[in-house]
């Protein structure tokens, strides 16, 4: 090997040495960059340690309302299929479907010519029987003329014809079909000229103010729902409008199919916006805690033996995260009552809690209400 070959190989070894050294320095520089959401700080031994940026919320006693949330349906307070009580042809229609009616308003008229004639005949018979009775009564009681049998026959004939007249007059009155209560004629099932018979449905009247809100309550809340309680009612189709309705009925038995018991609330509906069969969201107050420690459920971290929350604490070297084992109470929406594990004034980590462990260094960058 000549000297030129030996010199080239030496230069190549020196080039590879500088390249490897440069890659090692670059790799060391990348490894020292702090992770996202954290910063590098100097530890007590002079080295560097990870510091996690967090946001906290101060825990103070506050009022907490626990509610039972139910899905309910709306029904009319009264819903009746109106039927004809006499047979005949429909001669007049007074109200069209969709119209508001008062109790006793006429809805339609059935042909009454035959009944009217029978009433006239019965009235004449009743008048004759009544006059006959009056005369025989006067002759028998004042002058003792006639027999007791004739006296009694005249009395019974007068009573019988009067009763027959009353019966026919009632039937004549029933040829006019009337609204049974205040409401809306939601359906009309006959037209002019329709032949109807007793018991045939001719229309439907519904009362919409108030309406009933019916729901099934799980049996575990049997001790918490009583008549007189007030329910909050909302409808997805009506947006943010909220209503209150007193509970007037609580079922005495549990449905074995779904393990719920029924409740009914009465809801005012003066403008008719709420319609039967609409779906409602019902909230019933179960209990009220006047002084409870409440934290967001998102602040809790699930562990093997339950839940913990991280509290922003401080030691000799600065802010530090401390894990607290929690005893939880009732929850409502995204809030939960903490019955044990934290104290008033503790600062719960609500942002960054998933990135810390007990004893980690933290940097509090914000406080939430």
Describe it.
The chain has 369 residues and is an alpha+beta fold. Among the domains are: 40-59 and 300-368, conserved putative lor/sdh protein from methanococcus maripaludis s2 fold; 67-77 and 209-288, Efflux pump adaptor protein, beta barrel domain (Elongation Factor Tu (Ef-tu), domain 3); 112-173, Helix Hairpins (Orthogonal Bundle). The chain is built from three helices and 21 strands. The protein has helices at residues 3-31, 113-143, 148-173; strands at residues 38-42, 48-58, 61-83, 88-93, 100-101, 106-110, 176-178, 183-188, 195-196, 201-218, 230-234, 242-250, 260-267, 279-296, 301-303, 306-315, 318-325, 327-332, 335-340, 347-351, 361-368. A six-stranded antiparallel beta barrel has the order 3-10-13-12-11-14. Strands 1, 2, 20 and 21 form a four-stranded mixed beta sheet that branches. Helix 2 runs antiparallel to helix 3 (148-173). It is elongated and about 130 Å long. The two termini are 81 Å apart.
List the helices and strands and how they pair.
Layout: H1 3-31, E1 38-42, E2 48-58, E3 61-83, E4 88-93, E5 100-101, E6 106-110, H2 113-143, H3 148-173, E7 176-178, E8 183-188, E9 195-196, E10 201-218, E11 230-234, E12 242-250, E13 260-267, E14 279-296, E15 301-303, E16 306-315, E17 318-325, E18 327-332, E19 335-340, E20 347-351, E21 361-368
Parallel strand pairs: 2-21
Antiparallel strand pairs: 1-2, 2-20, 3-10, 3-14, 4-6, 4-9, 5-8, 6-7, 8-10, 10-13, 11-12, 11-14, 12-13, 14-19, 15-16, 16-17, 18-19
